Automatic annotation (TrEMBL):
Example of a GO cellular component annotation carried by this entry: plasma membrane
Record's keyword terms, sorted: Membrane, Transmembrane, Transmembrane helix
Subcellular location(s) of the protein: Membrane
The species this protein was found in: Phyllotreta striolata
Regions that span the bilayer: 20-47, 67-85, 97-115
InterPro entries named in the record: AGTRAP
Membrane topology per record: Multi-pass membrane protein
Protein name as annotated: Uncharacterized protein
GO BP annotations, alphabetical order: angiotensin-activated signaling pathway
Pfam families attached to this UniProt entry: AGTRAP
């Protein structure tokens, strides 16, 4: 990891949040630069803002998979909107700011599939981690529950009326 990123405290041990921060900064910069064109409509900022908000929110809630799914859905929607926006901008006869805005939109359109691919990898790793933790917890609770039941049965054999379990079964 580069020293200047360590000094800034940008990269952390959590690989997922570091990459989300990089994606967030990149999307924000490209959205702002793309909106710098004089002919950029407000809809360009509107359809990019949910992605940015979801990324801000997702950095805070690292273990929530729902944010990753929403970011991926937002990315796919904005890819389609970027295609329409770029086609409309290229048909406008205008000055260099129109072409600059279109070029930044094309750059952002090229980067979006990589973001979605990486988010899918993060989601798969998180699902695998959660399922392995659930499996470990289930095995632990099953093994500890078996030991407790065995001890309760031994205790019941010594004095069946001391525990409520055997007494309840005898009443039924």
């Amino acid at each position: 990891m580069p020293l200047y990123l360590e000094i800034l405290g940008f990269m952390f041990n959590d690989k997922r949040s570091s990459w989300l921060k990089i994606f967030l900064v990149t999307h924000f910069l490209l959205t702002v630069i793309g909106a710098a064109g004089a002919s950029t409509p407000a809809v360009y900022l509107f359809y990019n803002s949910p992605t940015l908000i979801l990324m801000f929110w997702s950095v805070g809630y690292k273990n929530n998979l729902e944010f990753l799914r929403l970011i991926m859905l937002s990315e796919l929607f904005t890819m389609i909107a970027d295609i329409f926006y770029t086609v409309m901008q290229l048909y406008i006869k205008g000055h260099s700011l129109v072409y600059f805005s279109s070029a930044v939109t094309i750059l952002q359109l090229v980067l979006r599939p990589y973001v979605v691919r990486y988010l899918l990898l993060i989601k798969d790793e998180a699902i695998e981690r959660i399922s392995s933790e659930d499996l470990e917890n289930a095995e632990f609770s099953k093994s500890s529950m078996g030991v407790n039941e065995y001890e309760a049965e031994l205790y019941d054999e010594k004095n069946p009326f001391e525990t409520g379990r055997l007494a309840r079964h005898s009443l039924n």
